[in-house]
Amino acid sequence: MTVMERARGIIRDAGHVVVLTGAGVSAESGVPTFRGTGGLWKEHRAEDLATPEAFVRDPRLVWEWYGWRRRVVSQCVPNAAHVALASAARVHDDFRIVTQNVDGLHSVAAADSPRAAPLELHGCLFRLRCTRCGKRRDDRGVIDATSRATLPACAACEGLERPDIVWFGEALEPAVIGEAVALASAADVCLVVGTSAVVHPAAGLADLTRRRGGHVIEVNITDTPLSGTAAVTLRGPAAVLVPELLSPDFPE
Question: Tens digits of per-residue pLDDT, 103-152?
Fold first, then answer.
């Protein structure tokens, strides 16, 4: 039995599957990494711009950066891994996607099926939140950051809007992480795709599944802290391995 065949068998026999994805699932869609080496934008580090303090200090600068990011990501399309995951979630009620990504590609892949929509732990580039009343809205328009007056404003209260993203120094929304914990705690399989498994609390979700007796399957191009405890580790690109893992043996 090959490693892939074993992984397929585990998925096939599972009742509840939760999928945790990270940046690696979007790499083949061309989504760039905005942090770390090569992550400078106009001599600013992402870690210095993606904070509530930076937004209070200079919302125009922060929105200029996010406007650029949105333009870059809007040119990317879901790859075969996004499509395969959305297809599985569309067909199976007990197959849920939880993502650390903010690129919105899982949502694009699942656009025709609300039940296939991902749980976005860290928010989304293409959703805005009012800093005054908290109202949220989806938005894929061009950001005009030429002045403070042209920045996105809430239609309900005229308050300044911000990207609906969890910034450095902010906690994940209790309802969102609570749902993710509940899904992982009830899952028979946690499929971890393209994540370094070092960013908490998301990194602990797979362990919740493992501790309840479930299996962890990892798909990544390199070893991670999760590799030693995973029941099956598949090495290679997500866009190649995920479709093979979920088709044709995943029951419909």
Answer: 999 999 999 898 899 999 999 999 999 999 999 999 999 999 999 999 99
Q: Is 44 a catalytic residue?
A: no
Predicted pLDDT of residue 252: 44
Fold of the CATH domain 46-75+127-165: SIR2/SIRT2 'Small Domain' (3.30.1600)
Residue with tokens 């849920």: 96
| Three-state DSSP string of 107-129 | HHHCCCCHHHCCEECCEEEEEEE
Question: Is CATH 3.40.50.1220 correct for 3-31+78-122+171-246?
Answer: yes
d(CA 153, CA 79): 33
Instruction: Quote the pLDDT of residue 215.
Output: 97
- Catalytic-role residue among 16, 106, 122, 215: 122
Which SS3 state, helix, strand or coil, does residue 241 take?
helix
